[in-house]
Design goal:
Strand content: 35-45%
Length: about 300
């Protein structure tokens, strides 16, 4: 994964912010989860077009929320802003109906998404959307911020596919930017940014994305992820990558055991998805259900 351009801040001109969404604003959404009678359930669920929020009834004691948009993706000018508040002792799965397509921009205008999540004491959030698929000549920006207490837990997956691979479209977007920030007790513990920009040169070169068609960032922190996060870290470190591996994983432990950051690059997006589901099998125990059993 050498050659990917990682920056601490995104450009100051970003049109996305952490301001809570205005109630009637286009593309705004708000989710509030509370725990009652042994179950976590949304007590407030509101999304404005093109954003759709789905909360199907399941046997799981966790709240299962799926985010979608009309057309299954984002067009130039779309600006989705979602705010999530998870109350004490809640468990929430936040996913998507399917992969989110980032449609091409004909006039250079960008689209984007932002998520601001606040987790109370003993709350657990599993943010696991399907991969983003940026089309050729698309421009996309994403910002996600998670604010945790010392007893809350977060499992975050952020994945991107090279494009419409069936049409031999590989890393042909104009610009793709994604930033994930996490604070613990109001102290920053993670500020991770990926920027792929054609203005810096061709993206699909050996010095940047190389032969890989899928990139994934996985971040785990909090009591609910222990000790299997440590076991996962040890397993990755003990496995040599080999020569020209179809799946490449690197792992970084944050200072003071604040969390575990894993990066995955794969030649086949399906291989990344299979590996993630295997590595994060304990998620089904946390949720009390398999969030994918009725999806595919």
């Amino acid at each position: 994964m050498d050659g990917l351009k990682l920056l601490t801040p995104l450009p100051a001109s970003s049109h996305l912010s952490e301001k809570p969404p205005v109630t009637a604003r286009r593309g705004a959404g708000r989710i509030v989860i509370e725990h009652s009678a042994g179950r976590s359930r949304p007590i407030h669920l509101q999304g404005h077009s093109p954003l759709k929020l789905l909360a199907p009834e399941t046997a799981s004691p966790a709240a299962m929320i799926y985010v979608s948009t009309f057309g299954g993706g984002l067009v130039a000018g779309d600006d989705i802003r979602l705010q999530l508040t998870a109350g004490p002792r809640t468990t929430t799965f936040l996913g998507t109906q399917s992969a989110t397509k980032i449609y091409r921009s004909t006039d250079g205008q960008a689209c984007g998404q932002s998520l601001v999540a606040h987790l109370a004491e003993d709350a657990t959030l599993i943010a696991w959307p399907d991969p983003l698929i940026p089309f050729a000549n698309s421009s996309y920006q994403q910002e996600q911020s998670f604010h945790l207490t010392p007893t809350s837990s977060l499992i975050l997956i952020d994945s991107q596919v090279a494009g419409r691979l069936a049409r031999n479209e590989r890393w042909a977007m104009h610009r793709f930017a994604s930033r994930n920030r996490v604070t613990l007790a109001n102290q920053p513990i993670l500020n991770d940014t990926l920027l792929l920009d054609k203005d810096d040169g061709p993206i699909a070169t050996i010095a940047r994305t190389g032969r890989y068609n899928s990139l994934t960032t996985l971040f785990l922190t909090g009591p609910a992820t222990q000790p299997w996060a440590l076991a996962l870290d040890a397993e990755i470190r003990a496995t040599p990558p080999g020569r020209h591996p179809p799946l490449l994983c690197t792992t970084t432990r944050l200072r003071n055991n604040a969390g575990l950051l894993i990066r995955i690059a794969s030649t086949d997006p399906r291989l990344s998805a299979t590996s993630l589901r295997s590595a994060l099998a304990p998620v089904t125990t946390i949720l009390g259900a398999d969030p994918w059993c009725r999806k595919w």
